[in-house]
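Supplementary Text 2. Reproducibility record for the structural model of the 713-residue chain.

All settings were left at their defaults, and a single model was retained for analysis rather than an ensemble. We include the record here because the model underlies the residue-level annotations in Supplementary Table 4.
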Amino acid sequence: MTHHENTDPGTLRSRRMVLAGFGAAAIGGVAAVATSLPAQAAGPAVPQTAVSARSVGSAGTVDELAGLKGKPGDLVAVAGHSAPGDGGGGTYRLVTSDAPAPNGGTVVKGKGGSWVLVHSGVVDFRVFGLFDASQPADDALDAMVVDPAIHRIEAHTDLNFVRRHRFSRSNIAFDFGNNLMTTVGIENAGKDDPFAAVMFFRGEVTDAVQEARLGEDVPDLADVFPVADSSFFAVGEWYAAEVNPLKGRWERELQRLVQVTQIVDGTHIRVNYQNGWPLAKERSITWRRIVPVHDVRVSNLRFRGGGADEFTGSHPLAFEYAVRCDVDHIDGTATFWPLIQRRWNTYYSTESCNLTNPTSVTWGGAGYLTQQIYCLYGYVANCHTSNARHLNDFTASAYCLVENCHGDGDDQGPFVTHGQYEHDLTYVGNSGLMTFANSGAAWGSAAKRITVRKHVCSWFVARVRVTDLTLEDVRVIGKPSLSGSGMLWINADGAQLRGCTASDTLIITQQSDASSRPTVIADSDFRFTAPGELTNASVTTPVVFVDTLLEGVGGMKVNGPGAVTFRGATLTAAPSADPVTLASAKVRIEGSTLSGARLVAAGPDGQELEISGSTLEGAAGAVISRKGAGERRVLLSGSTMRGKDAVHVKLADGRNHYRAVGTRFDGGSVELADAAFGAGSTLVHTGNVEVGVARTAFPVAGPAVVDTANAVV
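Retained model, structure tokens:
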């Protein structure tokens, strides 16, 4: 009697119990379930229509299948892989014609064929006899990933990997069940290869390439691009678009993985991306057709790296030429290269991931939570780093959102961009040191339309060619462990700040002039712990402070040809502090308060200092004075100057144009020397109120000196 003809009541009863426990659903739905392929195969699943499925018995472990005879299509319920109930069992089907090669899990050797696991597309590592990290899980991973019938891979135990895998698989999800992945004994990576991850998903880079000179200007926010021949393209296909470089080695405004959405005409296409930088007609774009990996998700993984350098270090994930490849709940420790490395990615998310104590924070590219190169439409949220280099790094990326991410032990800078023409990036509700476009001229040192809201950090630097920066409720608070912290440094090219603070200093410089909007700083508070430059000589565009407090401005310098305006602002300094040196061509102080602060006009020939509707009080010594050669214009109107130890205005030499109208002087003195109002100078002092003011020097009235209608008490 053969095995499947056994009619012993006890055997049948035992078989029924096994099937009822875990095999009945699979057998009952056999017409709808998938059949696994072996690791060596990559093609359609083994057909199931040739033979009717029938239950022929049960086995305690997978090893017992080798001794079972059966007919094609026979089904056997297995209680476990190594022992009954260990989670590695299932229902297996006998395949004899073109039987796939055994792989120890989804395909098991049988008599006259192979026993193939019957599943619904979800398989876990226990099917391969992996119940802890004592044995490498690499073969099992390969076998499951290359099987197109498997769409979800689960882990229910810790796992160890000793190889670095490269996949081109799409439409697959991994759930590691919050178990630990280790890499003890992993093979060495190549030199400088951050894509040598345990799991690297890479799309196909084809040989189909078109390069075309633009022949026409492509404006900012264009989604229609000129091409040599639009018949090369197809709607729905993906292409790596890359403009020819500028002066820097890697300086390109366009490097994106884009999808063609319309063939406009014979020489124009539309893509799913609005360009962030204008391109001149003499530039050229190379288009290479890509078959991206897509719809991959990796979830719920704890990862502990090993090794201490680029060869022995390890990290779990990398994606290149990838679309809709998402990651969530990855918790990494002791990685080398970024926990999640991306290049040429479009439409993706990285959520709820953590990185603690990577092995290096000084090696270039090492110690990141995620690095994103040439990426588009990314979302990074709810992530955290401790003692890492960068939490989030963008290089040549656009239209991405980062929110509720936090980095502590942040001296290396959790939030950065490389400066390779990033644009339209938004950060909301994060914390940690932040620096933009700061990697050097070889990349372009440029970024555009970056918005940061509700951010707390120890250092904020956007000092190079960062255009149209928007900061809202950004608080920079220095800390003893980081020298120079407490600093907020911006480029005066359309920067707009509202509700921001810095505990140490604010620095404004200018390296680009591409914006059409003014640089405005409003409703903010900045403290200066040591004298420095508020604006330096590079600032050529206007800078306006509105309803903003600047504390400790003694000794501060305001430089550059660009006009600087304080409107509704408050400037404070200790009464004994050095004056603020004004070297800008024009300084306006409107409706503001200077408490203890003094001003010395030291700008170019024709410099103008205009003070209106403001209060200057609490200072000792010369409140408004001049130094250096050249003409000075000092214009006072509707203001109040008070202080018993103050010399409200002291002009002792040079060529000057002084006008005070409708201003109240209270206490102290005014010193307007004859030497300051010789030929070519003018003085108008009219309609003012002087209360207890000593005129220690004042020119005699004449054609160029008007001193009338003043109320003197």
